[in-house]
From TrEMBL:
GO biological process entries: thiamine biosynthetic process
Top-rank taxon: Bacteria
The keyword Metal-binding belongs to this UniProt entry's keyword annotation: yes
Gene3D superfamilies found in the cross-reference section: Periplasmic binding protein-like II (3.40.190.10)
Family statement: Belongs to the NMT1/THI5 family.
Subunit structure: Homodimer.
Name of the protein described by the UniProt record: Thiamine pyrimidine synthase
UniProt function note: Responsible for the formation of the pyrimidine heterocycle in the thiamine biosynthesis pathway. Catalyzes the formation of hydroxymethylpyrimidine phosphate (HMP-P) from histidine and pyridoxal phosphate (PLP). The protein uses PLP and the active site histidine to form HMP-P, generating an inactive enzyme. The enzyme can only undergo a single turnover, which suggests it is a suicide enzyme.
Length: 387
């Protein structure tokens, strides 16, 4: 079933959502339980929920690398895929079925618009990860040419990603059509001749190649100043000293995993592949390393200008909020400092970087990964960008 010109995630009211959860329709079937998470001090098992409906991707490599290396230091942590509905990652955190979500800025704006008291505490995507895929020879670096065309999305909620991205490039978003082509089939739909473009992101480009989907791309990492996905928690948790201390320690584990992956990308891929053998079989060492290098570029950004892993660029976030207010995605102005905080970034980055580098350098790669030329892969990282 497709939905043309009718995708409007902000139209789902918080009241309606809470009625649905109260009726048991948004239950924890995806989280392996029923009802809300059991409350314990400060959290009990801490649950992070994916925005993709799956964990079998390389996007979360910092967690798996950190877990393998013992960087979570005894914390009781859990990763869950969640439903494929693009807004589930904020909904579940809001009602207490998960503790941290990983929304795109657009989905985060859906949460803000619907009165969810969430706050961004660790900005993973320092550069804009999002891109538009086109069939070979059909793309353009002028996104205004998408006016009158159809863009394929995996989830209706993704319109909250594409609208500000297009508007910031001067596109009249009222002249763009959207079709919800389904997860994980929207890329296949583009290859099969449906639509004119499809939303994509860094890391996924390599995964699509593994599936035989060979596209050309307008790349946000090269052309957009908007922020990308971020970690959000309930704002009230930051007011609880015990929970705030837990979050600092938890995010330190992620920051150490990010540093480990930066120092030894192939070792980080191996950590994910050990967790998900099917993903390893489908991607293999070279495409796996290509995918993670794309994401490291996004997650690291210009570290010389950042306050460490996870630091928010408030100017970039303010630009995003101003853009989505201008196009009506949110009805009231938002001040970036009110919904994003760097308070946890110092503690999260307070770790022994020399030790992490030593861990990464000392990792013994398997034969397939050891044979890879990482610098050669880096040199061809953007070959599929529209020239």
């Amino acid at each position: 079933m497709t939905k043309e010109n009718s995708i409007n995630p902000a139209g789902i009211s918080r009241r309606y959502f809470l009625q649905v959860t109260g009726a048991g329709l948004v239950t924890a079937t995806a989280l392996g339980a029923t009802g809300l998470k059991a409350s314990a001090e400060p959290y009990g098992k801490f649950t992070w929920i994916s925005p993709r409906g799956t964990l079998e991707v390389l996007d979360d490599y910092p967690y798996w690398a950190a877990k393998k290396a013992g960087y979570f230091d005894g914390l009781d942590t859990d990763m869950q895929p969640g439903p494929s509905d693009g807004t589930a990652t904020v909904k579940f955190v809001d009602v207490g079925q998960a503790d941290m979500g990983f929304p795109s800025p657009g989905v985060f704006s859906f949460a803000i618009q619907n009165g969810m008291k969430l706050k961004s505490v660790f900005h993973m995507g320092a550069r804009d990860t999002f891109s538009f895929a086109f069939r070979k020879g059909e793309g353009s670096n002028d996104l205004k040419k998408l006016e009158g065309k159809t863009i394929l999305l995996g989830s209706a909620a993704w319109q909250s990603i594409t609208d500000p991205l297009l508007a910031a490039q001067g596109v009249d978003i009222k002249k763009v059509k959207y079709v919800e082509a389904g997860w994980p089939t929207w890329g296949t739909a583009l290859a099969g001749g449906q639509g004119d473009a499809a939303l994509s992101w860094e890391g996924l480009r390599a995964e699509w190649i593994a599936k035989g989907l060979d596209f050309e791309y307008w790349l946000g990492v090269q052309n957009s100043k908007l922020p990308a996905n971020t970690f959000v928690v309930r704002a009230a948790d930051l007011e609880d000293p015990d929970r705030k201390a837990f979050l600092e320690k938890y995010l330190r584990g992620w920051a150490m995993g990010l540093e480990f992956g930066y120092q030894n990308p192939r070792a980080a891929v191996e950590a994910v592949f050990e967790q998900f053998p099917t993903l390893a079989k489908n991607l293999g060492p070279e495409l796996g390393t290509t995918s993670i290098l794309q994401q490291i570029n996004v997650f690291r950004g210009d570290m010389d200008k950042r306050g460490g892993w996870g630091s928010h660029d408030m100017a970039s976030w303010q630009g995003f909020f101003d853009e989505i207010h201008k196009i009506g995605q949110i009805t009231a102005p938002v001040k970036a400092e009110d919904v994003c905080t760097n308070d946890l970034i110092g503690p999260a980055n307070d770790f022994d970087k020399a030790k992490v580098k030593a861990d990464a350098d000392g990792y013994k790669l398997s034969e397939g990964f050891a044979a890879l030329d990482v610098e050669k892969i880096k040199a061809h990282l953007f070959d599929s960008a529209i020239k």
